[in-house]
Amino acid sequence: MDIIKPAVAGTMESSDCQVTIEPGNGGIELDIQSPVIHQFGDQIRKTILETLKDLDIENARLTVVDKGALDCTVRARVEAAAYRSVGQKDALPWGGAIR
Amino acid sequence: MINAVGRDIPEEILRLTGKEVFQGNNHFDGYEYRRQAPKVKCVIDPEKSKLRSSIREVLEACGIKDGMTLSFHHHFREGDKIVNMVMKEVHDMGLKDIRLCASSLGKAHEALVPMIEDGTITEIRSSGVRGEIGKVISEGKLKGLAYMQSHGGRVRSIVSGEVKIDIAFIGAPTADDYGNCSGIGGTSDCGVLSYAAADADYADNVVVITDHLVPFPNMPAQISMTKVDYVVQVDQIGDPAKIATGAAKPTSDVRKLMMADNCTSFVINTPYFKDGFSYQTGVGGASIASAVALSKIMKERGIRMRFGVGGLTKPMCDILNNDQVDCLLDTQDFDLDAVENVKHPRHFYISADEYANPFNKGAVVNRLDFVILASLEVDVHFNCNVVVGSDGVLTGAQGGHPDTAAGAKCSIVITPLVQGRIPAVCTDVTTVTTPGESVDVVVTDYGIAINPRRQDLMEAVKDAGLPLRTIEELRDIAYSITGEPKKVQFGDRVVGIIESRDGTIMDVVREVKEFSFAE
User: Fold this and answer.
1) Where in chain B is the domain with CATH 3.40.1080.10?
2) Which of the residues B6, B223, B362, B463 has the least number of beta carbons within 10 Å of its own beta carbon?
3) What's the CATH class of domain B254-488?
4) Distances B197 to A29, B158, B490, B503 between C-alpha atoms, Å
5) Distance from CA of B167 to the nearest CA of A (A)
């Protein structure tokens, strides 16, 4: 999937995370802020990278403002931001690229 | 050196503080020592006035100088104006190396941050710190150490002479010009002055600051004129509306109500729940809901409480108003209903010494049947952390947590299993404040765990149909939701110590380090 335009998913509410995705400069660039960065920073990063891999995204810049979201939420927000970025609203690959 | 809760206390910190490591709750039982005595400047001449016109004038009268220890009490909680008022003057006078001995510090005191950074304040002793103050200490900006003390432990440190207070400041809602002061009757009432009592007894200079000067004699006086050197009148000592900041309102959160139900069901199935029992509860939503539920069951079963202790809130005062308890013993009021209830004839003021000091001849906490507490984290050893956030930053207060937990026959900690993404039940707490030997039961929204040390409690509730689990099971459920947390990455420098109530070292708090991702 090629990221075309900037897109956002998620909120700044507690237990959510807000993901902003933009076209990258030839790779994956991650900026993660989280109140639980010490305990779960590596886990959040791993979840985001896995999700991008599943979506076949290799060139994107992501800014993630986490508010203590669980992995399933992080994943869902990354997926939503990616599909918004390419403007795809229908025929989403449930059970495929979207786990 | 490894202490009784398995924490390694660096030798350099033991040398620096002259302290020992924690060796168990009752290690000092029977210990003999002589209490310290303060300097007394006699007032014999009846013509002499204790009134001074400003904070500056009173500081000069007390002979303030670099390196002195100043003490404060926190009954106004987030509405306190005394600390900032005095410290601004101290700062303006260019004083350095001040040791702050406060019963607690909160978000109301963020004006102290630049004074920590510029060396005006170089050591802090307090029940806890929140907000920006906690942050700058954790960033290593306090030159000396932050000593986090329990309410009882603070009194011990003053009475034993470990801390020598040069000037004590007492914010008094009412006072007369001779220094008799009280927590009620004025325009900024806080109810009681319990934490200031030891300061008045043991400080070399005692200054009363009031915004409501009343004609002599201001009786009954919670703190007597015989201990007071000076009285200063100011515009406002505190904002009582902010006393209730952080205290819970009756909750409709179903998760908290479920925890409250679990807690109450546990309490009533123990052998201690009988006519004449005693009880203390905190200010969390679940704790409050549990007090309300308990009062209903007491009524149904015709069971009467002998005494309630606190840290008081409206639900506890309601139990007194409904005549379901013989008396309340009060060290602090968490809301304005409790402040108002101080006027009830069976609502008694007690000092922090009477409440919780382990180094006197027996404190109220030792006579408690139940205490209901909260915790940021509790681990599989039942150790609790109430001072350091899961991000490693100082952000809470010991309060009476370790004191009541050590004293009560049945100490119950209520916590949601998961808070945000933080598992409240974990393998090892970030920092130990209350040792597991004091904690009997952990109540969560996913079940109740009883400390294996308390086989008697396990036996007592085994047929009560409660959702019992082991503490390890609770942790595993928590980790299955959040994932297993990694340990906070700390720097090397020790910025604070968690002082056990007996003055030994329970744990140390290190400087926080910026997080770096694993590769």
Assistant:
1) 50-242, 254-488
2) B463
3) alpha beta
4) 58, 11, 37, 19
5) 39
Which stretches in chain B have pLDDT values below 70? 246-248
Answer positive or negative: Cα dihedral of B141, B142, B143, B146.
Answer: negative
pLDDT, tens digit, 9 for 90 and up, residues A32-63: 999 999 999 999 999 999 999 999 999 999 99
Concatenating the DSSP letter of every residue in B278-329 gives EEEE-SSHHHHHHHHHHHHHHHHHT--EEEEEEEE-HHHHHHHHTT-EEEEE
Contacts of B514 in chain A (CB under 8 A): none
User: What's the pLDDT score for residue B340?
Assistant: 95
Report pLDDT for A97. Answer: 87
Decide which of 2.30.30.100, 3.30.230.10, 3.40.1690.10, 3.10.20.30 is the CATH code for A7-85: 3.30.230.10
Of B391, B420, B518, the CB nearest to A42: B518
Is the Cβ pair B486, A71 closer than 8 Å? no
- Can you read off the two tokens belonging to residue B440? 């009997």
d(CA B451, CA B474): 13
Q: Is B487 on the interface with A (CB under 8 A)?
A: yes
- The pLDDT value given to residue B248: 62
Task: Dump pLDDT digits (tens) for B178-198.
Answer: 999 999 999 999 999 999 999
CATH class of B50-242: alpha beta
How many Cα atoms sit within 13 Å of B88 on the Cβ side? 10
Which element (helix H / strand E) includes B209? strand B205-210
Domain ranges for chain A: 7-85
CB contact under 8 A, A36 and B486: no
